[in-house]
Design brief:
By secondary structure, the protein is mainly alpha-helical. About 75% of the residues lie in helices and about 0% in strands. It has helices spanning about 5-30, 40-65, 75-110, 115-145, 150-155.
């Protein structure tokens, strides 16, 4: 399994942001721009909380297992792998969603916030970008927690 690269996530964020900005401009010129839902930042924040809680739980269980504490409950490798896959998928989707709301938010900021609904939409879009960044941070932390330690004897030793 390959690690997430920040460059890929930033590229997805920027590409989605540019496309969303252009789409918002086009849509607004043709009619009324659809609103940013209030649930968007809430759902993203909940996903970030689940990822962070999973990372903290796995971290404490892995530390107890590595220190060979009596009664320590080990971590099934399949559970750790599933957690990492969930984190990586969440980070990729969150970077796309945050880019979409970021592009819409930039469009709303550049067209003027003199109308109250547009101000609210820009605020929801900004909170969605922040919550998306929290999902990405929690996913990267989860991935780092579940990373296997490097084996010193395999890296430096040659086969005999």
């Amino acid at each position: 399994m390959k690690q997430l690269h920040i460059k890929v996530l930033v590229g997805l964020f920027l590409a989605a942001g540019v496309l969303a900005w252009a789409g918002a401009r086009l849509w607004d010129s043709l009619g009324t721009l659809p609103g940013v839902p209030l649930a968007a930042p809430i759902v993203l924040a909940l996903i970030a909380a689940v990822l962070a809680a999973t990372a903290l739980s796995l971290r404490s269980r892995l530390n107890a297992q590595r220190e060979r504490r009596p009664g320590a409950k080990g971590v099934d490798p399949l559970v750790a792998a599933r957690a990492v896959v969930f984190g990586q998928a969440s980070a990729l989707v969150a970077s796309l969603v945050a880019g979409l709301y970021g592009g819409v938010g930039v469009f709303l900021l550049t067209t003027g916030l003199d109308v109250a609904p547009r101000r609210d939409q820009a605020l929801y879009a900004g909170f969605s970008v922040l919550a998306g960044a929290a999902v990405v941070a929690a996913a990267i932390y989860l991935e780092r927690v579940c990373k296997l330690p490097e084996d010193d004897d395999e890296a430096g030793a040659s086969p005999a």
